[in-house]
Write a structure and sequence with these properties.
Elements: H1 9-18, H2 26-29, H3 33-73, H4 77-98, E1 105-111, E2 140-142, E3 145-150, E4 154-155, E5 161-165, H5 172-176, E6 185-194, E7 197-205, E8 211-214, E9 217-218, H6 226-232, H7 248-254, E10 261-266, H8 272-286, E11 295-299, H9 302-308, H10 311-314, E12 321-325, H11 341-348, H12 351-364, H13 381-385, H14 387-390, E13 399-403, E14 406-410, H15 412-423, H16 433-448, H17 457-473, H18 475-484, H19 490-496, H20 500-506, H21 513-523, H22 530-543, H23 557-562, H24 564-567, H25 575-585, E15 591-594, H26 602-610, E16 616-621, H27 631-642, E17 647-652, E18 654-655, H28 660-673, E19 681-682, E20 691-694, H29 699-713, E21 718-722, H30 727-733, E22 741-745, E23 754-760, H31 762-767, H32 772-780, E24 783-791
Parallel strand pairs: 2-8, 3-5, 10-16, 10-17, 11-12, 11-15, 15-16, 18-19, 20-24, 21-22, 21-23, 23-24
Antiparallel strand pairs: 1-3, 1-6, 4-5, 6-7, 8-9, 13-14
The structure holds adenosine-5'-triphosphate (ATP).
Biased composition (Basic and acidic residues): 26-40
Binding site for ATP: 266-273
InterPro entries: DNA_helicase_UvrD/REP, P-loop_NTPase, UvrD-like_ATP-bd
């Protein structure tokens, strides 16, 4: 039975591990309102000082901008570059300072005297352990150092720290200290503020046995601890950062050195996504220059991207980090469709590699197709619908040119031989065009018999050069080449695969006819599926991109104004322009973070791997939540993408999302989905058991009524999770209930969370795919407060309405 008491055994164990709600000494329990008010006033005075200092810094930055603009008028080339760098820096700084952080300053630690008395670059003492004698024999001590922790560091005019950046080494004890290992920390305080007003403080004592004094006064403890306050808040449509309450095991991941691969496993709600986002901010802080190469965060769905994308700006980081859904990793493609589990399974597997390689070569033989733009192969859906009537015009079967006064011709047999020779090996198809062109010219030269005219090698070379020139100058030759060896695009090849007969040919001995039919059919739809995107990316690698002439850089209007363009006809790019251009062109990153890594298919791992060939990696996931049917194949592809780099492994063990009552119910499905695996311990308990309802005659009516009930019970959001093919239906059921409630297909629920969740027919979700039980486990672990399960026709509910999958 689920534990219903507040702080039950699970919670008590979790609390010990995470320094939650550390014991408040009896002397402190009496902390009354006047103590609280006094403490708040003290923090307010500090915050006021910080804002005065920030205003001075903003003025400095504005001055820098103006000064830089003045220099722009009279610059030498050197001054110009300096101007750009300065404007860029000042702009970034201003932006960050002007950003009204809701709780700019959020933490404070009061510390004992340290072992050695050395200070670090942020002005704080570096020692982790207290000095001998810092605690007196009668268990009293003096506070030697107080540090305030915030979103960015602020120094006073004497370079003493007013606020320590949460990512700085000096801030680590704020997150790491626990009553078991307190280090120098006596009290950890979370400060809640809005705009410039301090609203409250929550303290945790790390050494409750100690009576500590600060400036001669006893150090009080106020409130019930910060984590519980944070977890109890209702959820909105976007994720909040957790800087004020990161826990020790999470902090170790966030601050792990970036070398090689950091691999993080943890059950639902253990903070993997939160940790991944905070880690991106930490890495940038720690080595901004190195990560100028960009950080990519790969997320499973656009919904999760939208849910999480506010976190980094709230941490003061934008720009350098790209959060992309798996379906948007290829530029210009936004996948909106889902394949059936059977088709997804084929498209995601490495078997597709062979098929794509065949298709890329095979598509060449189809020629440019009717109505395609010059040099490109295009197939429309109607063409694929009926291969007999609408097959694209095939490639030319004969080449005729006139050179050296003779008609020369290559017939289809000769052309086929040339194509086969040109295609030998594995080089990208589009890059073989020059080779094919040369082979054509060789064959025509041979036919011309001109080689026999001279034995002098120099003359022969000249003769050959003028022959080639004459042939290639002919429009006919160029037109032939474009039609016979068109430049292929990934989209065109994938579209060509929508023809069932063609695909069966290219997939012979790899896919059975039924599989080829299903895949071809899925490619006929309008739009791309998430799994198509990995195929497009693979095709890009197979086809290659021919080099194009570089576009001439535009002249900077400022240079025209100052006449500088005459001094520097080809101006070097400024740092900023370069950064912007690289960001636009970027296909590879310095660090890649993969969220929900358990879901990547082998083909998706290849796609993601190409974006981080020289990168360091953070990979977070939970095998028990995998919706991919063949975890072994995916693990092998993941290992290939990550190469031989050493792995550093971490495990997160505490579930911050689900109350223990919900976690326990989900645990039953986990036991079926992955026998023997251990669920994370839930950190809190609400006393609210999951509710079971049995669908009436009309499923939609029951869902709507239960969703409306949950909306009345929670202030925040309600997620209604249904099997994938009920998505549209579910949206209609909920119409008019407002935007606090959302209908989701089971696969769309990945990574998201709601105050309350309604899971509709566990059996339908479990039966959807071979990984259905794991997908159901995901659905059951989305709620932060309340869970209702509706049993449908297939669920075989008992007299209490509990579906068979959720019974003991
Ligand atoms: N230290 C913390 N302080 C406050 N809230 C936290 C903390 N750690 C995690 N949370 C909250 O717990 C919830 C779950 O976190 P998150 O979504 O990152 O977990 P996850 O491991 O990625 O879960 P899943 O595997 O189910 O997607 C979020 O609301 C997050 O803000």
């Amino acid at each position: 039975m689920p534990s219903t008491s507040e702080g039950g055994p699970v919670a008590a164990q979790a609390q010990q591990e995470t320094a939650v709600g550390s014991v408040h000494g009896t002397a402190h329990e009496a902390a009354d309102d006047s103590v609280r008010d006094r403490e708040i006033r003290g923090e307010q005075r500090h915050l006021d000082r910080v804002y005065r200092r920030l205003e001075e810094k903003i003025q400095e930055a504005e001055f820098l901008m103006e000064d830089a603009a003045r220099r722009g008028q009279i610059g030498t080339p050197g001054a110009l570059a300096e101007r750009d760098a300065q404007v860029f820096q000042a702009g970034v700084h201003l932006n960050r300072l002007n950003n009204e952080f809701e709780d700019f300053l959020f933490g404070r630690i009061d510390l004992l005297r340290g072992k050695d008395g050395k200070k670090g670059p942020d002005g704080a003492y570096t020692a982790v352990e207290p000095a001998e004698g810092a605690v007196r024999a009668d268990n009293t001590a003096d506070i030697a150092e107080t540090l305030h922790i915030g979103r960015i560091g602020v120094l006073d005019e004497n370079y003493s720290p007013l606020v320590i950046d949460w990512r700085a080494p000096a801030a680590a004890p704020f997150y790491r200290a626990t009553p078991v290992e307190p280090g120098r920390v006596v009290r950890r305080r979370v400060i809640r503020s809005k705009g410039r007003r301090v609203l409250g403080v929550e303290d945790d004592l790390m050494r409750p046995e100690l009576t500590a004094y600060l400036d001669g006064e006893e150090l009080p403890a106020v409130g019930d601890g910060a984590l519980m306050a944070a977890l109890g808040r209702s959820r909105g449509h976007s994720m909040r950062d957790i800087v004020a309450s990161i826990q020790a095991e999470q902090d170790r991941v966030i601050r792990a050195p970036a070398a090689s691969v950091t691999y993080v496993e943890g059950g639902p709600g253990t903070g993997k996504t939160a940790v991944a986002l905070h880690r991106a901010a930490y890495l940038l802080y720690q080595d901004r220059r190195r990560y100028a190469g960009g950080i990519l965060i790969v997320s499973p769905t656009p919904l999760l991207v939208a849910y999480t994308e506010g976190v980094l700006p709230s941490l003061g980081e934008e720009g350098q980090v790209a959060i992309r859904a798996l379906g948007s990793l290829v530029d210009g493609v936004e996948a909106t469709l889902y394949d059936t589990p059977a088709v997804a399974r084929i498209k995601g597997s490495l078997r597709m590699l062979k098929v794509l390689r065949k298709a890329a070569r095979g598509a060449l033989e189809l020629g440019p197709g009717a109505g395609a733009p010059a040099g490109q192969l295009a197939f429309d859906d109607t063409a694929a619908d009926d291969a007999d009537t609408a097959a694209p015009a095939g490639p030319p079967t004969r080449l005729r040119v006139v050179a050296f006064g003779r008609r020369l011709e290559l017939d289809s047999g000769a052309l086929d031989r040339i194509r086969r020779t040109a295609l030998g090996g594995t080089a990208p198809v589009n890059l073989l065009r020059p080779r094919a062109r040369r082979l054509l010219l060789d064959a025509l030269w041979e036919r011309s018999g001109a080689a026999a005219r001279t034995t002098d090698p120099e003359l022969a070379a000249e003769l050959r050069a003028s022959f080639d020139e004459e042939v290639t100058a002919e429009d006919d030759f160029q037109t032939f080449l474009d039609a016979w060896w068109p430049e292929l695009t990934p989209r065109a090849v994938l579209a060509a695969m929508a023809d069932e007969r063609r695909l069966s040919r290219w997939a012979r001995r790899v896919l059975d006819p039924g599989e080829a039919r299903e895949v071809a059919r899925s490619l006929k739809r309008d739009g791309w599926s998430v799994h198509d995107v990995a195929l497009l990316d693979e095709l890009q690698a197979i086809l290659g991109t021919p080099a194009r002439p570089r576009r001439k850089r535009e002249i900077d209007p400022l240079d025209q104004l100052t006449g500088l363009e005459e001094l520097m006809p080809v101006r070097e790019e400024t740092q900023r322009e370069r950064a912007e251009r690289l960001a636009q062109e970027r296909t590879e990153y310095a660090h890649v973070i993969v969220d929900e890594a358990q879901d990547l298919t082998p083909m998706q791992w290849r796609m993601v791997g190409r974006r981080g060939r020289h990168a360091t990696w953070t990979v977070v996931g939970d095998p028990a939540q995998s919706s991919w049917s063949d975890p072994d194949e995916a693990a092998a592809a993941r290992d290939e993408a990550l190469g031989t780099r050493p792995r550093r492994r971490f495990e997160l063990t505490v579930n911050y999302r689900n109350p223990s009552e919900i976690a326990e119910l989900a645990g039953k499905v986990l036991a079926l989905a992955m026998p023997g695996s251990r669920p994370p311990s839930a950190v809190r308990s609400t006393g609210l058991r999951p509710r079971f309802a049995v669908a009436g005659r009309k499923l939609g009516d029951t869902v709507r009524a239960e969703a409306a009930r949950l909306l009345r019970r929670v202030d925040g959001t309600v997620g209604v999770v249904v099997a994938m093919d009920r998505r549209e239906e579910a949206r209609r059921w909920l119409a008019g209930l407002g935007d606090r409630v959302v209908a989701l297909g089971s696969l769309e629920a990945k990574g998201l969370e709601y105050d309350a969740t309604l899971v509709v027919s566990p059996a339908e979700i479990a039966d959807e795919s071979p990984a259905g039980l794991r997908v159901l486990y995901v659905a059951l672990t989305r709620a932060t407060r309340e869970l209702t399960v509706i049993a449908g026709e297939r669920d075989d509910p008992d007299e209490l309405g509990v579906p068979d999958l959720l019974r003991d």
